[in-house]
Amino acid sequence: MEPEKDSDKTDEISLWQAWLSEKSSEARSHLFFFYGQWLRMITRLLYVRYPHPLAEWHDYVNLASIGLLQAIDRFNPALKTRFQAYAEPYVKGNVLKGLACYVRDSRKMYQDRLVSLSDSGEESGSDLEHVANVAIGLAFGLFLESGIIDHEPEASNPLNVYEVEQNHDHLNECVRQLPPNEQQVIVAHYYQHMSFTEISGLMGLSKGRISQLHAQALKRMRQHHEHFTSGVRW
């Protein structure tokens, strides 16, 4: 593993200082996303080491994310313990506990998306256009979900690898273009596989507001995608 950069260490200290002084949902959210790459590395190890016949990759990520939030809430930097060393047992413990009583049911997450897009308030010329817009939004969400999550190309030839990398780069650029709140909702829901209720607790916003931000973000990303494919840049 590469040594930590000085700038990263400075950012980490600043984020912890903000969290300890404010104890706000925003400060906790910033810490959560700061450790996102580390969390995915730990989750990948758990996914390989502890396979479950009913659970998929995104289920492991969701359980690990909850463990990370628990560790952030309970960590005391004054103990001079490295946070990752402190947090790892929380992450591993929550994943294993979740797998032990796991029953797979993703319907609620997709229902949240449907409600979000149906109630987005986007004007359309007819009921048929509204239904079409909702369907396109759901389809784009699935495209986003399958593109952000790590996938191996179907054939490991250079062309397929290049196409997969190009799709990932474009999706990541779409996410980076979003306003901060919308970006956090998209990353938490599609990348960390958190429900709207869990994101609501993380960001300190109502579930209804999370639903609005989700719909706004998907609309904005669709527009960016259309501009990109037509050769027009923001």
Could you please describe the fold and organization of this structure?
It contains 11 helices and no strands. With 234 residues, the chain is mainly alpha-helical. It has 2 domains: 3-103, Rna Polymerase Sigma Factor, Chain: A (Orthogonal Bundle), CATH 1.10.1740; 120-231, Winged helix-like DNA-binding domain superfamily/Winged helix DNA-binding domain (Arc Repressor Mutant, subunit A), CATH 1.10.10.10. Helix 1 (6-22) packs antiparallel against helix 2 and helix 6 (107-118) packs across helix 11. The longest helix is centred in the C-terminal third of the chain and has 23 residues, at 207-229. The two termini are 36 Å apart. 25% of the residues are buried.
Question: Which percent band covers the strand fraction?
Answer: under 5%
* Top-tier CATH class of the largest domain: Mainly Alpha
Share of helix, binned: over 70%
Radius of gyration, taken over Cα atoms and rounded to an integer in Å: 19 Å
Name the helix and strand elements from N-terminus to C-terminus, one letter apiece: HHHHHHHHHHH
* Biggest β-sheet strands, sense, barrel: none
Q: Which class best fits the helix and strand makeup?
A: mainly alpha
- Stated plainly, the CATH topology of the largest domain is called Arc Repressor Mutant, subunit A
Number of distinct beta strands: 0
Low-pLDDT stretches are: 148-165
Shape: globular
The CATH H-level superfamily of the largest domain is Winged helix-like DNA-binding domain superfamily/Winged helix DNA-binding domain
Put simply, the count of helices is 11
- What's the structural domain tally? 2
Q: Kindly state the mean pLDDT as a whole number?
A: 78
Amino-to-carboxy terminus distance: 36 Å
Q: Mind telling me which CATH architecture of the largest domain this is? A: Orthogonal Bundle
